[in-house]
Write a structure and sequence with these properties.
Blueprint: E1 2-7, H1 15-27, E2 31-35, H2 36-39, E3 51-52, H3 55-61, E4 65-70, H4 72-82, E5 89-93, E6 103-104, H5 108-116, E7 120-125, E8 128-133, E9 142-143, E10 146-150, E11 158-164, E12 167-174, E13 176-180, H6 188-191, E14 203-209, E15 219-222, E16 227-232, E17 237-242, E18 245-250, E19 254-259, E20 264-269, H7 274-282
Parallel strand pairs: 1-2, 1-4, 2-3, 4-5, 5-6
Antiparallel strand pairs: 7-20, 8-9, 8-19, 10-13, 10-17, 11-12, 11-16, 13-14, 14-15, 16-19, 17-18
């Protein structure tokens, strides 16, 4: 078995868990490589022969799993190097909320044992593909969570003209608009009043951010549709994000959002499931008075 370890930022408090992971992989004679930018932050010296730094090198190595060390943002960042390989992602939560990276630090050794024994399922997660004229994001124009358009900090609300398959839907007068996947429904969309969607749904969620019209509500639609967006406001510059990446767009940009042509595969260990995750993370069923 081969695994690729991906992390973004080394934090001293997490060092013991990363050491535990590496020792477990070595004890089980599992071949591994580490993301080079992360390995360079580690206090122990990591041989360059154990490092990978690009999509091309990852494709050549062809691991069985990607193990991410961090929170949900680390998984989102990992998709930019995995791209269309669709290599299953095992998310170890060294961050905070952990809807996607749901394996806690204390379960690292157990998680490796379950991978070896094939005690897991793979959950394919649909993604967003962004096209724009002029171009905003180049080759990494995809997202696992969401695409957003937002006003700049010093501007008034903006107007986002929205079309579905070329047919006018609405002009959102708001601070912004989120186009989310089911995976992203537990992210920014949820904090703006959007619904929680089970991961296997093939859908987009349109969630306005602080809409001026109170009768505007989040909307769910099949991801077989194509969404087109055009923005206007009192200023010419607006912020847009694609997962954790951000750019500035203008009134000249024409945005098209559709279903991506590849998915991200997340590993769910035996005994874990989506309902358990949202119960634990959102504290459902707990009475703080007791």
């Amino acid at each position: 078995m081969r695994v690729f370890i991906y992390g973004q930022r080394w934090e001293e408090d997490n060092g013991k868990y990363i050491d535990l992971l590496l020792r477990k992989l070595q004890a089980e004679d599992i071949d591994y490589k580490i993301y080079e930018a992360f390995a360079q932050q580690m206090p122990q010296k990591i041989s360059l022969s154990l490092c990978l730094s690009s999509h091309g090198e990852l494709k050549e190595y062809n691991p069985d799993f990607i193990i991410t060390l961090g929170g949900d943002g680390t998984i989102l960042a990992a998709t930019t190097i995995i791209q269309g390989l669709e290599t299953p992602i095992v998310g170890i939560n060294l961050g905070r909320m952990g809807f996607l990276a749901s394996i806690e630090q204390e379960r690292i050794e157990t998680a490796i044992d379950q991978l070896i024994k094939k005690e897991y399922t793979i959950s394919p997660r649909s993604m967003i593909l962004l096209e724009s004229n002029p171009k905003i994001f180049t080759s990494k124009n995809f997202a696992l969570n969401d695409f957003t358009i937002l006003k700049r900090d010093d501007s008034s609300m903006i107007v986002i003209h929205t079309f579905i398959d070329g047919v006018f839907l609405n002009s959102y007068w708001a601070d912004g608009l989120i186009v989310s996947t089911p995976t992203g429904s537990t992210g920014y969309s949820l904090s703006c009043g959007g619904p929680i969607i089970f991961p296997e749904n093939n859908s987009f969620i349109l969630t306005p951010v602080a809409p001026h019209n109170l009768n505007v509500r989040p909307m769910l639609l099949s991801n077989d549709h194509v969404i087109s967006l055009k923005v206007e406001g009192r200023t010419d510059n607006f912020l847009c994000t694609l997962d954790s990446r951000h750019k500035v767009l203008t009134t000249d940009h024409e945005i098209t959002i559709k279903k991506n042509n590849f998915v991200s595969n997340l590993v769910s260990l035996e005994g874990d499931n989506f309902m358990q995750t949202i119960r634990n993370k959102l504290n459902w069923g707990l009475d703080k008075r007791n």
